[in-house]
What does this fold into?
Amino acid sequence: MPENTVIYTHGHHESVLRSHSWRTAQNSASYLLPYIKPNMHILDVGCGPGTITLDFATLVGPTGHITGIEPSPGDVLVQARETAASRGITNVEFKVGDIFELEKIFEGRKFDIVHVHQVLQHIDRERVSEALIQMKAVTKPGGIVAVRETDFAAMTWFPASGGMTEWVDTYQLVARANGGEPNAGRRLVSWALGAGFARDKITTSAGTWCFSTPEEREWWSSLWADRTLSSNFKTTALKSGLVDEDKLSRIADTWTEWGKSEDGWFAILNGEIICRVD
It folds into this structure.
């Protein structure tokens, strides 16, 4: 496996998995759902705890099959397998795999759909098109590569807050120090063109998440406060020298205060592309 191809800014702290386990095919891959048919074989790159992956498995039916991969072994894959077992889903496998080595891993095996969600923003930004080339290489002719990535600079919220601006600016600095591109959503077409997809083979869209009810604000603000103080984000931020403990504590407090705002509203823009493979 190539070294330092993926530096995951968040890591798999509980506060991160709290968010990832909330994701479903409906709330995080609705743009892709019209393309999924019974009997399909789908590869989910960077599957995390597998909640989207398992939804795909139910959509393709018992004669279809889903493979989910993560770049390293660990508790997140254990959780994905346990969730599959608890839901009685058997047409799925979870394994270790590097996005830059898909051809080597699958040795001629190809998929109807190769899907990636919130992963490209975390890999070496100079190699994103290379990753898409690998995804295309393991896609059947007539199949599709599907990508959804957020765009941190496009996030917006109310009430206006200097502390929240400090958070998003700091996050972007840390993510770039890790080699990633936090504003991935706006770059998807450019990266796909760099991977050799013709422009008329790329369909674009945008999807959103919005958090505003009291329950949503409490959930979203608490997980970001916890991420700031306890996840790999804190470790890499301190190591980079871009922040100190006081700044991180100030950002976490800002999130807590925003969560208490009765008129609080937070929206996230995600870029989406469907790339058709000849």
User: Anything to note?
Assistant: The radius of gyration is 18 Å. The longest strand covers residues 139-150. Confidence is low (pLDDT under 50) at residues 1-5. The first helix runs from residue 14 to 20.
